[in-house]
């Protein structure tokens, strides 16, 4: 048996085990079923998380926040087992594996916390938890090195900081903490997380809300999809984890929607297709679809001179999907937005046949359409009419233009004329974004010069900028339950 710690006591790992390079930190607890607490509802969903902090006491990057939806740190030094019930008789619930040789030098401290998901809503707290502990052991020999059994009498707390593992004088030490908080995981997010500010982005007035563990709310189909992604499409699985962060910021965790990707196949898009950029963009939208819908697929629509329903892009067929469908639907001349918008509307809400609609229609789930183009349309009036009619339907249009926007050119004179000649005019798409005389504002627009010059995280943030407000409005107007 290792060293037994009491609250506030410390353990110097290097002093006791100077040659140890890897350590496992196991956390355990037991729900006291003998207690009868009035108002308690639902099963207990208890999870451990780790905040890896820099010298300023903050998480230096979101991937140094380790929890159910992010099981590995950015530097690959820390791995979370998820629910781990394989420990040999120790009662470990979840285990954190740390390779001390890989810990980024910028990381000075690791905070180990345990939270009850939706504890306040379910009237659940740590007064109903007993035999909670955190212990260190050698993952190779399973020899226990140190252990802290929490003896505190908690009452309303829904989150507890079990302990902190920190550097001092070049060595790693552990302190038993046992401090409870009433606001769940958010207590620690507010304390240790700040948004990483990019030079080109405006500072946000409030902190984003990082995701809380949601596995209790996932159905079996969603869990199976995650396992399939991790096994057969690991890079899509990595993208899904990035999606989770953006969805949590937008308060869309566990949101369900159908996802469609609508792609311009006019000749001007040739280089984007041949370079593979559209394939890779489609994979990023597939990751969004995997989180919005547990069937692991998105619907693909194409438009040029004509409109086409190209079928489903799935976890099983996504590899070279775009290349393959272009064999069937070669690039075309001209561009018509309205034609494909009509096809999409008819596909999801066939009662109007893609035509006139003047009253609201409801559905259990909304449709999120990612609409990608590099130029203007030849049917502006039809497009506006389609957007107006679709505002009575639970369908949201996220327009994204690819290319340098003419509105970004500020220079005047002959230099400005030449500069504008090399750009694209996206003014009509801007008009769609701001169009009045709609039942709901059901569209958003942004442009990017190169789809691969933007970080995945920023792309997902852009995709969820106006959509959350539309969802709220759609519910108020009875388009959604």
Offer a quick outline of the entry.
By secondary structure, the chain is of the alpha/beta class. The chain has helices at 13-16, 185-192, 220-232, 234-249, 270-274, 277-292, 321-328, 337-348, 380-390, 413-421, 427-434, 456-463, 467-476; strands spanning 3-5, 10-12, 22-31, 46-53, 65-66, 78-83, 94-99, 109-116, 129-137, 144-149, 159-168, 171-181, 258-264, 297-303, 307-314, 367-373, 395-402, 443-448. Mean pLDDT is 85; it is low at 84-89, 195-217 and 406-423.
Textual characterization of the structure:
It is elongated, with a radius of gyration of 26 Å. Strand 14 and strand 15 form a beta hairpin. The protein is built from 13 helices and 18 strands. Helix 4 (234-249) crosses helix 12. The chain is an alpha/beta fold and 481 residues long. 27% of the residues lie in helices and 26% in strands. It has helices at residues 13-16, 185-192, 220-232, 234-249, 270-274, 277-292, 321-328, 337-348, 380-390, 413-421, 427-434, 456-463, 467-476, and strands spanning 3-5, 10-12, 22-31, 46-53, 65-66, 78-83, 94-99, 109-116, 129-137, 144-149, 159-168, 171-181, 258-264, 297-303, 307-314, 367-373, 395-402, 443-448. The protein has a 6-stranded mixed sheet with strand order 1-10-9-3-7-6, with no helix packed on it. A 6-stranded antiparallel sheet has the order 2-12-11-8-4-5. Mean pLDDT is 85; it is low at 84-89, 195-217 and 406-423.
């Amino acid at each position: 048996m290792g060293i037994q710690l009491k609250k506030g006591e410390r353990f110097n790992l290097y002093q006791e085990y100077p040659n140890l390079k890897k350590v496992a930190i196991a956390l355990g607890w037991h729900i006291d079923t003998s207690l009868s607490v009035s108002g308690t509802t639902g099963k207990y969903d208890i999870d451990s998380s780790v905040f890896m902090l820099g010298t300023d006491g903050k998480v230096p990057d979101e991937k140094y926040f380790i929890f159910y939806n992010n099981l590995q740190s950015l530097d690959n030094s820390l791995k979370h087992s998820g629910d781990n019930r394989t420990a040999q008789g120790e009662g470990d619930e979840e285990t954190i594996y740390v390779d001390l040789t890989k810990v980024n030098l910028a990381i000075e401290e690791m905070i180990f916390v345990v939270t009850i998901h939706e504890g306040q809503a379910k009237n659940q707290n740590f007064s109903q938890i007993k035999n909670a502990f955190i212990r260190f052991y050698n993952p190779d020999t399973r020899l226990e090195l140190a252990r802290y059994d929490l003896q505190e009498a908690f009452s309303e707390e829904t989150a507890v900081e079990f302990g902190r593992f920190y550097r001092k004088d070049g060595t790693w030490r552990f302190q038993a903490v046992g401090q409870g908080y009433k606001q769940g995981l958010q207590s620690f997010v507010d304390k240790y997380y700040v948004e990483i500010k990019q030079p080109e982005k405006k500072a946000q007035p409030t902190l984003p809300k990082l995701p809380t563990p949601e596995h209790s709310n996932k159905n079996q189909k969603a869990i199976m999809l995650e396992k399939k992604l991790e096994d057969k499409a690991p890079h899509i699985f990595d993208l899904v984890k990035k999606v989770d962060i953006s969805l949590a910021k937008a308060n869309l965790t566990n949101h369900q929607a159908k996802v469609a990707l609508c792609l311009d196949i006019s000749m001007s898009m040739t280089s984007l297709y041949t370079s593979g950029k559209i394939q890779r963009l489609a994979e990023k939208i597939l990751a969004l679809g995997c989180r919005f819908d547990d069937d692991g697929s998105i619907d693909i629509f194409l438009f040029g001179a004509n409109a086409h329903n190209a079928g489903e892009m799935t976890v099983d067929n996504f590899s070279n999907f775009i290349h393959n469908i272009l064999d069937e639907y070669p690039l075309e001349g001209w561009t018509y937005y309205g034609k494909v918008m009509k096809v999409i509307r008819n596909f999801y809400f066939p009662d109007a046949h893609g035509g006139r609609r003047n009253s609201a229609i409801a559905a259990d789930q909304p449709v999120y359409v990612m609409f990608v183009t590099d130029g203007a349309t030849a049917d502006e009036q039809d497009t506006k009419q389609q957007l107006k009619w679709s505002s009575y339907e639970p369908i949201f249009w996220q327009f994204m233009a690819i290319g340098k926007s003419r509105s970004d050119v500020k220079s005047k004179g002959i230099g400005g004329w030449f500069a504008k000649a090399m750009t694209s005019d996206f003014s009509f798409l801007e008009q769609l974004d701001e169009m009045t005389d709609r039942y709901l504002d059901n569209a958003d627009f942004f442009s990017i010069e190169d789809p691969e010059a933007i970080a995945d995280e920023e792309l997902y943030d852009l995709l969820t900028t106006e959509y959350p407000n539309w969802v709220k409005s759609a519910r108020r107007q009875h388009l959604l339950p």
